[in-house]
Amino acid sequence: MPAHDSPHRPRNVLIADDNRDSAESLAQVLRFQGHQVRMVFDGQQALDEFNRTAADVVLLDIGMPKLSGIEVARLIRHTPQGRDTLLIAITGWGQQSDRSRTREAGFDHHLTKPVDLSLLTRLINGLPDPGTNQSLPAA
């Protein structure tokens, strides 16, 4: 959907994924939707960038170098600005134990790769999840 047709306000989105191609593809889609997007490629960069800019939405891969997405999520949730941030795990890890770990770390949703872009768009825009099993129950 072009940015000028979007009924939702643009979000400040941080993407953290050590797979640069994946991060860049996702960033391109989100920018097309009118969002401001920054990308980083490891967990420490994700935490540093969040502390600098306090994104509205953080999309975290779980298996990243330096700090895992789980560690980053926990650290973000312990900051005043991170309490209301929408945290979405975007990962190849989709077992129930992985979903439990992300829930316990403070993620709002757990999406498995390849990501359903329509679901991701609805989550970022704050629309109800239509019942897919790709996301966690609302916290």
Give the helices and strands, then pairings.
Layout: E1 12-16, H1 20-32, E2 36-40, H2 43-53, E3 57-60, H3 69-77, E4 86-91, H4 96-105, E5 109-112, H5 117-124
Parallel strand pairs: 1-2, 1-3, 3-4, 4-5
Helix pairs in contact: 2-3
Give the key terms.
five-stranded parallel beta sheet, alpha/beta, 139 residues, 5 helices, single chain, Rossmann fold
What does this structure look like?
- With 139 residues, this protein is an alpha/beta fold.
- The chain has a single domain (9-124), classed as 3-Layer(aba) Sandwich (Rossmann fold).
- It is 37% helix and 17% strand.
- The protein contains 5 helices and 5 strands; from the N terminus they run βαβαβαβαβα.
- It has helices at residues 20-32, 43-53, 69-77, 96-105, 117-124, and strands spanning 12-16, 36-40, 57-60, 86-91, 109-112.
- It has a 5-stranded parallel beta sheet with strand order 2-1-3-4-5, with helices on both faces.
- Helix 2 (43-53) runs parallel beside helix 3.
- The longest helix has 13 residues, at 20-32.
- The chain is globular.
- The termini are far apart.
Could you give a short description of this structure?
By secondary structure, the protein is an alpha/beta fold. The chain has one domain: Rossmann fold.
